[in-house]
Structure formats: structure tokens, C-alpha cells
Amino acid sequence: DGKIIGRGTQDDKGAVVMTYYVLKALKDTGWEFNHTLKLIISNGEESSWEEISYYQERAPEHEYTIGIDGEYPVTHAQKGYGLLTLTSGEISMSKKKGEWTVLSMSGGFGGSIIPEKGEAIVAGVTNSLNRLTELARAWESENPPARFTLTSEKGNVKLIAHGASGHSASPESGHNALGDLTAFLASLDLTPNSWGVLTMHLGRYIGTETDGASWGIAHTDSVMGSMTTNLAIISVEDGNPTALVNIRAPRGITAEQVEAAVNKRIDKINKEFSSALSLSMTLGPYHFVPTDGKFVKTLLEVWEEVTGEPGKPIAIGGGTQARLFPNGVDFGLSTDEKHYRG
What we know:
By secondary structure, the chain is an alpha+beta fold. It is built from seven helices and 19 strands. It has two domains: about 10-75 and about 300-335, no CATH class; about 80-285, 2-Layer Sandwich (Alpha-Beta Plaits). The protein is about 30% helix and about 25% strand. Strands 13-14-4-15 form a four-stranded antiparallel β-sheet. The protein has a four-stranded antiparallel β-sheet with strand order 5-7-9-8. Strands 16-3-17 form a three-stranded mixed β-sheet. α4 (about 175-185) crosses α5 (about 195-205) and α5 crosses α6.
């Protein structure tokens, strides 16, 4: 049916093969080049990016770098990539006992992926399955398209939130199951154990939001667009309940500002429950190539000549390796992209 199906065919094996044949076609025509052309293929593009540093230490600096991991016409700006880790330390026995107690929670696979499933084990009152199901259905009706399934497990309730996967750079490309899970649970009367405190913080300050507003980090740049947040993973690390949040930050907001805003809200919940919630974070720089330079202008002219359509430079929330090179931009290969699952 004309489709190629396989891991990475869109991102980026297809683009690599197409570029190889473009270079071969140019060589076969006998075209005289006034530059040396290289096709650089990196194996860790979705993970460490360490191979690019290795290459740059041993190769001359590029005059021009054209990535093939973005969108047409020209992707000239990329937001900063941030990872915020929230860890809920052990809490001394609280005097407060909530109606519901979160015993465990999990979900998510990677920082750049919107989680399509999240689950929690919850202990509660007598007949807790029926009661929690009733509350979940009411919350669903007020927060579409949230969807939960609830079952009994060893006397407790297993609560599963169902969402839709997507790429964290584009929150609208999916629906965050962990956002629904924590927002719903935070609406209940929870015991402030280590899981409860983490859940309440996530539900109050992230939940179903994708712009960082309740965290106090919402920000919009006229070129790069708005801050985005993705509650990507909930797990247990070194015995402690842990959450990983991926943010994509436009220019105009610093790592220090983000850290201060989030810690202000952490301090608030720690004072409320004498808890030990803490934050560690990294936020890389944004990437920006001016659009009035010869490089970007030339690529836009090529786009317009070939397609007959006006060319406008694009800023993205995703990160491509073009950002690792001075004046690096992406020239395709996607256009009018449909749903991208990361």
C-alpha cells in the first residue's frame, strides 16, 4: 500500500536514506562543488548525543549545518530542553489520616513521551472499590477525555488511567494519563505519606496543565512560542517515589527562574505536611539562528522555488542535533505533519 513500516522509518532512517540518494545523484551528475559535503549519521540521536561531541572534537567546524530531523521550510529555533526530578523522601508518621492512601504509583517510559497509561494502588474505606469508582466517574464527566478503569487488588483498589501517547514537545499530540491520574487523586482526601505528598503536589501544580501556569513558570516568546510541560514518568528510585517532568522552555526564562518558582511550591507543601519533597533539575539553552542571514534566506528561497509556496521559518519545541552546531538549522523532512507519536 506504499507505506514503509518499522522502527525509526520516520525519525530518522527514511530521512537518512533520502539524503544519501540526493548526494549520490548530485555526484553522478558531475556537479562541481565549492564546499565539502558530509552526511553525518549519529546512533544516539534519541538518547545521549555524545557521539556529536566526539565528532566535533576531531573534525573542523562546519560553515553550514543542515539537519533533516525537523520541518520544512526551515526550522531555525528550538526551545531549551529541561528535566525536573521530584523526589518524595520518607516522612515521619503523620497525625493526619486521609480517607484514601496512595500505596504506589507508576507510569511513563521516557522524558519525551506523553504517557498513555498510569496506575496507582489505593487503600480506602469499606467498600472502597464502589466508592472510588463513583468518584472517578464523576471526575471523568467533568474532565473529558479522562478515562479510568478500577479493579480490586488484594483488598485495595487498582486505578488505571488511560491516555494517548504523543511527543512532549507538542502536548496537543497526545493526552497525559499521569496528568489525569494525579489530578484526580489530588482531588481526594489523601493521607500525606510520601506517595500522597508527591501526588498532591503533581495534581495541584501540574495535573492536566501543559503550560506550567500553576507551577509559576508559564512563559511565551513571540518567536518560539510557549513553555510546555509533560509529566513523563512516575516511578520508584532508590526507594523513594519519584516523578520526572519534561519542560520545553522558550527564550526569556532562565533555569534559575524555573527552579525558584517550583521550589516555592515545594516549600509550601513541605510546610503543610512536614514532608521531604525535593527538586533536582537541568535546563539546556535554547537554540536560535537569525532569519535575516544568508543561510536561512537561501534555504527559504529554495523552498519557494521548488514548491511555489511562501516560506516561513519555524520554531519548534523538540530538540534536534542541528542545535549542537553553530548556525545549525533543519531543512525538512516533514511537512504538514500528522499525528507524531515520538
